[in-house]
Amino acid sequence: MYITVILIMNVKGMRDFYGEELDKRRYISDMAKVVFESYGYSELDTPAVESEEILSRKAGEEIKGQLFRIEGDLALRFDLTVPLARYVANTSLPKPFKRYAIGKVWRREEPQKGRFREFLQADADIAGSSSMRCEAELIACACETLGYLGFGKLAVKVNDRGILNRLAEKFGIREAEKGKFYRALDKIGKAYGNAAEAVRAAGISNPELEEFYKRIEGGGNEKIIEAACELLGNETTNNIEKIIEFSKPYGTEKNIVVDLSLVRGLDYYTGPIFEIQSEEYKLSIAGGGRYDGLIGIYGKVNEPAVGISLGIERIADLIKAPKKKVKRAMVIGIGDVYAEAVAAARKLRANAICETDLMERNLSKQLQYANSRGFDFAIIIGEAEKKKGTVKIKDLKTGNEKEILMAKIADEF
After folding, report:
1. CATH superfamily placement of domain 327-412
2. Residue 343 half-sphere exposure, CB side, CA atoms within 13 Å?
3. pTM of the full predicted structure?
């Protein structure tokens, strides 16, 4: 007698999690949630299923081919950004709108080491501000989360899609060849050793372009910025330089590595792009960028936006598992006190949820925003307070106000 044994396996590229593996993912998600909320981000939950037409509008051919299509014209979301763009385009919200989302996404790509068809992401995004302060805050937020999760030295690779486009134009790369050029650059470190090799592999014969990448290879940020400005114009690296400058109060400017071969795969990026790599493991564990044109394709009004995503699956493979904050405060800076405002917020975040202004607004508009978001306190720093080393704490519920030393601010919360 023969017995037929049917092996019921997981769908290709999908996994089950139990015990420690599930605990690790929850731990990472909870840590991201705590840090995101401490910076004033609010959670948004969107459906796993979207219309295929919405998902395809700015996905690019590669992602379109990876959609998990289901009944009719529906498909599973391939990231958490497109659903956010749809939501922002159709909802009236205070600006900036700061949201985080933690959820599963699906891509029908060939599974390989570290890449699966179903995976968990933790995203933070800001819509409504074109200031590079947003990029600086998102990078700091991600680095803080990764630090709490036990990652030591982090490299934040930064580029700008505008620079890539200008390089392509400068060296006569036709529109039809741009995709090949970007895809080849994206494979540096995986299939190719350096940018010059990637350019040749893409079938683009351009000795001047190869020479440019050879010239900046292994150079520091200043050398790369100088070379890019010399080739493409002084304003070329403005965004990158602002990100570095705005990152200084957070202490993350020392992590930033300008990398003009960084691409990021999604077609909706329009400006600065970034990727956070663990120096210990030599692996990318977070990434994102600016997508100023995405929201407008889902509604009547466009909004500038930028986001970052933590790769929970990859992080879970690298850490061992097995921490929560409560009053809400808005640090309001008046005048040239941006660094002091960020410093005050950093002190407060040990005990409270705290935001700083990302729109460069006046006092009344910042207070209006703080009240609309339901903050308990406003921490006000002006030029006078800066000179005295003090801050004013205003209770937004009672209107009571007092002045204390900046050094004592954490004791009040």
Report:
1. Anticodon-binding domain (3.40.50.800)
2. 14
3. 0.86
